[in-house]
Amino acid sequence: MAANINNNMLEAILAQVRPLLGQGKVADYIPALASVDGKKLAIAICTVDGQRFQAGDASERFSIQSISKVLSLVAAMRQYDEDEIWLRVGKDPSGQPFNSLLQLEIEQGKPRNPFINAGALVVCDMLQSRLSAPRQRMLEIVRQLCGVADIAYDATVARSEFEHSARNAAIAWLMKSFGNFHNDVSTVLQNYFHYCALRMNCIELASTFLFLADQGRAPHLSQPVVTPLQARQINALMATSGMYQNAGEFAWRVGLPAKSGVGGGIVAIVPHEMAIAVWSPELDATGNSLAGIAVLEQLSQRLGRSVY
Ligand code: DON
């Protein structure tokens, strides 16, 4: 069933959601993020049949933060056999805040999934073991996926997070104590913070993630990004863990695989049809974009799309 989307419809959804601005809170635990204008609101869509739609501040770049955890997982899936990855990180929702240490101690240093901070840090540790220049490699992957050559890291955001890294460092050291972290903690933290500090806009994010809507294929690349099975697996992880302890509520309201970041971005996938990126910097109590979720809820209802 072809989706009936146009830019006016997207503008109408943003207008409907705009009154929510002011109800959330811009992330301030990374000081360099606190200065972002909380009133920004954007959406962009790329469809597998080559259509592009956008509304609001869709060409303004922001810090993608935890959305990068999907890209680091993709990089690891291209470097490692399946068993090697899933021996070190699980596939289940955590039901805990993204930076929690509680479960990690109880479960002996094996993170519940690759999208909480602990899981993403294990994935970055794996990349550090196999790649000679993990930061450069990630830039190459992202630039290739979205077809934009000037995607870059925000060095100020990465530095700001490194200067306030007590909790992520504690997570990494705890995993090291259980033997599930092999490289120098501060080197891997630096890579992880740089990945989180990628600056992209909604149009770039929607085109980057289109491969997850199209069985692992990016339209402009001759080689698949991942296999059809891997694309399905990544979507499943996004559906169950992409929105942290809000995954159930998000499934109820939106019903699509998605990944959020504390910069206020969310990427959502309609399998076989489209990749959607939304941005609104104010977050709810679980660290997900408050108005961004509302935009996705309106869109999924208007289009009649859900994976459930
Ligand atoms: O490690 C952190 O806390 C941040 N760099 C990323 C957290 C994040 O984006 C969680 N997402 N909603």
TrEMBL record:
InterPro entries, alphabetized: Beta-lactam/transpept-like (IPR012338), Glutaminase (IPR015868)
The protein's Enzyme Commission number: 3.5.1.2
MF term (GO), any: glutaminase activity
A Gene Ontology biological process term: glutamate biosynthetic process
Alphabetically ordered keywords of this record: Acetylation, Hydrolase
Ranges in coiled-coil conformation: none
Reaction(s) catalysed by this chain's protein: L-glutamine + H2O = L-glutamate + NH4(+)
Superkingdom of source: Bacteria
Tagged with keyword Acetylation: yes
Residues binding substrate: 66, 117, 161, 168, 192, 244, 262
HAMAP family listed in its UniProt record: Glutaminase (MF_00313)
Protein family according to the UniProt entry: Belongs to the glutaminase family.
Subunit structure: Homotetramer.
Protein name: Glutaminase
Protein's organism: Silvania confinis
Lineage summary: Bacteria, Pseudomonadati, Pseudomonadota, Gammaproteobacteria, Enterobacterales
Recorded name of the encoding gene: glsB
